[in-house]
């Protein structure tokens, strides 16, 4: 049986309608990409990156909301964020933020150097604040929209942590998508299958050496939707990765057809 490759990029000129259902709007996504690369970023790439970030944050918010509900609390707190990540390792993303958030300071554990001396949190952070951490405030409006859409209320400290996780995650995604373009592909482990609801899962292709490298097609100056999906395959795994890629592909396909 032959399979048809999913098209993310539009085949002709596209007058893009506003993406009204994405909490993280294309101008914000473009700004994040500009922080880490001078490459041009296509519209489908922005849609895909925004959609994947929404999926990841939704998973975390829903998990935190469930933790708060178990204690009959109306607002989610950073404690619920930690609980959500503890219960679902797939949601442990944007880890660079953890070094900067009081929520995670007591959970990071000790790190020692080769001589056995304790490495301080300041030394672990380094002298330069990552752009994803510095730009976290830009995500507050989108995070609040996403919280409202999920029917979840959050204390300010929780909003701050969600801002930071979203910003760091999207920054890492943008950086790796740009690397995919520069290197003409990405070495990765495992595979991602895009399935419509009700479709049977494909036969396992484990052991096929051709799956060790994903090669790209297109110019070396533009980050496309498939480049972002390749980066997603490095940052996410399991059900969350499958859902993020499927939702992003559906959204990009629908926007391209509009």
Tell me briefly what this model is:
This protein is mainly alpha-helical and 258 residues long.
Beta-strand residue percentage: 5-15%
Q: Span from first to last CA? A: 30 Å
Q: Unreliable runs, pLDDT <50, ≥5 residues?
A: 1-20, 188-194, 202-213
Given the helix and strand composition, which structural class is it?
A: mainly alpha
Helix run count: 9
**Gyration radius, to the nearest Å?**
19 Å
Overall mean pLDDT score?
80
- Please outline the major beta sheet: 2 strands, parallel
Q: Element order, helices and strands?
A: HEHEHHHHEHEEEHH
In order across it, which strands form the biggest sheet? 1-6
Number of strands: 6
Question: Can you characterise this structure?
Answer:
By secondary structure, the chain is mainly α. The chain is 49% helix and 5% strand. The protein is built from 9 helices and 6 strands. The protein has a two-stranded parallel sheet. It has a two-stranded parallel sheet with strand order 2-3. The model is unreliable at 1-20, 188-194 and 202-213 (pLDDT under 50).
Fill in the keyword field for this structure:
mainly alpha, 6 strands, 258 residues, single chain, two-stranded parallel ribbon, 49% helix, 9 helices, disordered N terminus
Please specify the SSE layout and strand pairing:
Layout: H1 26-36, E1 40-41, H2 43-70, E2 75-76, H3 78-87, H4 121-125, H5 131-134, H6 140-149, E3 153-154, H7 156-183, E4 185-187, E5 213-215, E6 222-223, H8 225-235, H9 238-257
Parallel strand pairs: 1-6, 2-3
Antiparallel strand pairs: 4-5
Helix pairs in contact: 1-7, 2-3, 2-7, 2-8, 2-9, 7-8, 8-9
């Amino acid at each position: 049986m032959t399979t048809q490759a999913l098209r993310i990029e539009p085949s002709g000129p596209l007058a893009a309608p506003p993406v009204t259902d994405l909490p993280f709007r294309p101008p914000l996504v473009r700004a994040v990409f500009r922080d880490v690369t001078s490459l041009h970023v296509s519209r489908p790439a922005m849609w895909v990156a925004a959609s994947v970030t929404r999926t990841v944050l939704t998973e975390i918010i829903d998990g935190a909301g469930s933790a708060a509900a178990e204690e009959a609390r109306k607002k989610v707190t950073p404690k619920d964020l930690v609980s959500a990540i503890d219960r679902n390792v797939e949601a442990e993303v944007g880890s660079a933020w953890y070094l900067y958030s009081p929520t995670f300071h007591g959970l990071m554990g000790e790190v020692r150097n080769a001589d056995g001396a304790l490495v301080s949190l300041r030394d672990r952070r380094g002298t330069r604040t990552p752009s994803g951490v510095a730009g976290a405030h830009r995500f507050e409006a989108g995070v609040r929209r996403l919280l409202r859409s999920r029917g979840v209320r959050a204390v300010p400290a929780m909003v701050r942590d969600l801002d930071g996780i979203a910003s760091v995650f999207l920054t890492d995604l943008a950086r790796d998508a740009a690397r995919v373009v520069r290197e003409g592909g990405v070495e990765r482990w495992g595979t991602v299958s895009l399935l419509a609801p009700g479709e049977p899962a494909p036969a396992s292709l484990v052991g096929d050496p051709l799956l060790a490298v994903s090669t790209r097609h297109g110019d070396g100056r533009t980050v496309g939707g498939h480049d972002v999906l390749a980066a997603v395959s490095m940052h996410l795994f399991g059900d969350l990765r499958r859902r993020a890629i499927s939702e992003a592909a559906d959204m990009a396909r629908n926007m391209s057809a509009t």
